[in-house]
Design goal:
Number of helices: 15
Number of strands: 12
Structural class: alpha/beta
Number of domains: 1
Oligomer: single chain
Largest sheet: 7 strands, parallel
Distance between the termini: 26 Å
Helix content: 40-55%
CATH superfamily: Metal-dependent hydrolases
Strand order of the largest sheet: 4-3-5-6-7-8-9
CATH topology: TIM Barrel
Shape: globular
C-alpha cells in the first residue's frame, strides 16, 4: 500500500513495525508529509475544516511549505533520514486562488530527491499542473487531471512522460455527489465502517457547506463525465493507470478501493485491466522492477492474496465477495463491525 502523505507522526515507524512483523497490517510504502507552496494545497483546506485549537498540529505534521531551495534541501534531508519510500508534492490550487509550487521549486524537489535516491510523486489537478509536474521529472502522478476534460492531444502529452497515473476517481465522485441524494453504502462499507458514520454522509453539516467547498464540489460534479472520458483517452494514448482510493470523506480504507475499481470500469477499462491496475502494475512501480515480489500469483512470490467467490475478470463486483484474505501466506480472520 502506498501512503502518499500522512499527518501521523509515526507513519514511518508504523511502516517499519509492519515490515518487522511486530504489527499486523498491509505492507506500507510511505512518503510522510506533503510538500507544497507557502499557503498552497492542502493548507487552505486545513484552515477551513480543522478546529482552531488543532490546526497548528495538522499543519505541522501534514504539510511542509516550501519558499526556497533551502527549504527544499531541509525537507528532502529530513525525509531521506526517515528512509521515505517516495516524496509527495502538491501542484494544484484548492481553492483556485491558492498558490501552487513554481516550476523552479518543483524541479528542485525532484532534483534534490533524486540525488538522495528518492522518487517523487505529485498531486495534480489540471492539465497545466500535470505538465508542470511532468516537466519537473516526477516519477508518478497522484490523481489524473480531474478538474477538466482532456482531448486526445493533451492525453498524448501526459502519456509521453511514461509515468504511471493514479486515477483516484472515487474521492472526486464522493465529493461531487455530496448532498445530491442518498449515498447507498456498499456491502463492504457496512461491514467495515461505523453505521453512524455512514449515515452522517447523507446529511449536510449544520450550517451547510462553506462557499469554498460548495464551489469545489460543484466543479467536481460538473466534471464527472470528463474524468471517465479522461481515463479512456489516457489509456488510448498508452498511459499506465494505477488504482488508488485516497481515503477522505466518504472514501473508506479497503472498501473505497472497490468503488474505485468500478469507476475505472466506467472509464472504459476491462475488469482484467482493472485488476492489473490494482496489483501487478502498482507492485512494479513500488519495487522499481518488472518482476516484483508481489502483485502476481506465481511460485516464489509473496502470498498477499484475496480469494473471492466468483470470476472478477468478468465483473469487478465479484471482488467484493471476499472469502479469504491472506497476508504473506497467513489467512486472516474477518469480522464485521458490531452493529453493521
Amino acid at each position: 500500500m502506498l501512503d502518499p502523505a500522512d499527518l501521523a507522526p509515526d507513519a514511518f515507524e508504523r511502516r517499519d513495525k509492519i515490515a518487522a512483523g511486530k504489527l499486523l497490517g498491509p505492507t506500507i510504502f510511505a512518503s510522510g508529509p506533503m510538500l507544497t507552496a507557502v499557503g498552497g494545497h492542502p493548507l487552505p483546506v486545513i484552515e477551513e475544516i480543522a478546529p482552531w485549537w488543532i490546526r497548528w498540529y495538522v499543519r505541522s505534521h501534514a504539510v511542509r511549505p516550501l519558499a526556497s531551495d533551502a527549504d527544499v534541501r531541509r525537507v528532502i534531508d529530513e525525509l531521506a533520514a526517515a528512509h521515505a519510500d517516495v516524496v509527495k508534492m502538491a501542484i494544484d490550487s484548492v481553492p483556485d486562488s491558492a498558490p501552487r509550487l513554481t516550476d523552479a521549486l518543483a524541479a528542485s524537489v525532484v532534483r534534490m530527491a533524486h540525488e538522495k535516491g528518492l522518487r517523487v510523486v505529485s498531486h495534480i489537478g489540471t492539465l497545466a499542473d500535470a505538465l508542470e509536474a511532468g516537466n519537473a521529472g516526477v516519477d508518478a502522478f497522484m490523481h489524473m487531471v480531474y478538474k477538466e476534460a482532456l482531448d486526445a492531444g493533451s492525453a498524448a502529452k501526459l502519456a509521453a512522460f511514461h509515468k504511471p497515473i493514479v486515477a483516484t476517481m472515487g474521492v472526486f465522485e464522493s465529493y461531487a455527489m455530496f448532498g445530491r441524494g442518498p449515498r447507498v453504502a456498499t456491502a463492504l462499507e457496512t461491514e467495515t465502517a461505523d453505521p453512524e458514520v455512514l449515515d452522517a454522509l447523507n446529511h449536510l453539516p449544520e450550517g451547510g457547506v462553506s462557499p469554498m467547498f460548495r464551489t469545489y464540489f460543484d466543479l467536481l460534479f460538473a466534471t464527472r463525465q470528463a474524468r471517465r472520458d479522461n481515463v479512456r483517452l489516457l489509456r488510448a494514448a498508452g498511459a499506465t493507470i494505477l488504482a488508488g482510493s485516497d481515503a477522505q470523506t466518504g472514501v473508506f480504507p479497503g472498501a473505497g478501493l472497490h468503488r474505485e475499481l468500478a469507476l475505472l470500469v466506467e472509464g472504459g477499462m476491462t475488469p482484467a485491466e482493472v485488476i492489473r491496475a490494482a496489483t501487478l502494475d502498482p507492485a512494479r512501480f513500488l519495487e522499481k522492477t518488472d518482476d516484483p515480489s508481489f502483485g502476481v500469483v506465481a511460485a516464489g512470490k509473496r502470498a498477499d492474496l484475496l480469494l473471492v467467490d466468483g470470476d472478477p475478470t468478468t465483473s469487478v463486483a465479484e471482488l467484493s465477495k471476499i472469502r479469504v484474505v491472506m497476508k504473506d501466506g497467513v489467512p486472516l480472520e474477518r469480522h464485521a463491525l458490531r452493529g453493521s
